[in-house]
Design goal:
about 325 residues; alpha/beta; globular
């Protein structure tokens, strides 16, 4: 297992210095994930489900309140200082907004080379430029563009540059946080094909964060479905798409575009209309679930046979 998360918890507190009590938001609750070498694990769910927070916990951009992240079987969570910096070379991130993630004052060549200056300081300028040119070419960009700035590129080109920046230090894992959601559909397909080609060429492993199940179906080997900070269902992509066990997974699948309305099932026809409301106890989805029962109120959230539902579908 190249990357593993064990029982991650993260709570955010708001209120500031002048309020008597802070509000708490439990963004991630007891999340455990496993990523195999050369595979893609998709973490899916609607906005606010906690998937981007999980991505930042895996990257150590945020520190978990409890739980542990292991990289190559060693604790990534326990590292600090120079040891953490050295280990970070092995796990890099591609962000959702390709324009916001690039420094507008830096040329593309300088942006992509920044990781080399941090992780491989022994390289001279000529060696860095050659490495940057090679990686840009692998990502479908002309190396002659290295002297240009981010505003001179399209959204798809900027995302290719973001991928090149992550790839230049030869990582083992890429954490892809909604990498195609800000792009046109035709450009999305190009970027997804690029990611798959890079995975084959370099043996990369991906954590793929997304809310778009049509994209996930195209790229993922395994899928973790999140809602309210919990993983509600976990399995291979084939299993999850063919026979979802949790009603929330079925709701996500039903939201996918279809060629004709007759193809939709009636699994979640009676869902309430407040998507912001989640339960404080029991299954977090129970307030929106058409299959809720009394014992869902106090159920302890844990995966059983790849799902957390007490009354699973297709059982």
């Amino acid at each position: 297992m190249i990357l593993e998360a064990r029982s991650l918890h993260k709570t955010f507190r708001s209120g500031g210095l002048w309020r008597a009590s802070a509000n708490e938001k439990h963004a991630v609750n007891n999340v455990s994930l496993q990523l195999e070498a050369g595979k893609t694990l998709a973490v899916v769910g609607e906005s606010g489900s906690g998937k981007s927070t999980v991505a930042r916990l895996l990257m150590r951009l945020l520190d978990a309140d409890s739980g542990e992240v292991l990289l190559h079987g060693e604790s990534f969570s326990a590292l600090g200082g120079a040891a953490l910096r050295r280990k970070r070379r092995h796990i890099q991130m591609v962000f959702q907004d390709p324009f916001a993630s690039l420094n507008p004052r830096m040329t593309i060549g300088s942006t992509v080379a920044e990781g080399l200056r941090v992780f491989q300081p022994a390289l001279n300028r000529s060696q860095r430029e050659q490495r940057v040119a090679d990686v840009l070419q692998q990502c479908g960009m002309d190396p002659a563009c290295m002297a240009r700035y981010p505003h001179q590129f399209s959204g798809g080109q900027r995302q290719r540059i973001g991928i090149a920046r992550a790839l230049v230090v030869a990582p083992d894992v890429l954490v892809l946080d909604e990498p195609v959601s800000a792009l046109d559909v035709s450009v999305q397909a190009q970027i997804l094909n690029l990611l798959q080609q890079l995975q084959q060429d370099h043996g990369l492993s991906y954590i793929f964060i997304s809310h778009d199940l049509s994209v996930v179906r195209h790229i993922a080997d395994d899928v973790a479905v999140m809602f309210g900070g919990y993983v509600l269902e976990y399995g291979t992509a084939a299993e999850v798409f063919a026979a979802p066990r949790h009603p929330y997974t079925a709701a996500l699948l039903q939201a996918m575009p279809v060629t004709h309305p007759s193809q939709r099932s009636a699994v979640v026809d009676n869902l309430p209309v407040d998507p912001e409301q989640t339960a404080d106890t029991g299954c977090p989805f129970r307030l929106r679930c058409a299959h809720v029962r009394d014992d869902c109120t106090e159920a302890v959230m844990q995966l059983r046979d790849g799902h957390s539902c007490l009354h699973p579908l297709n059982s």
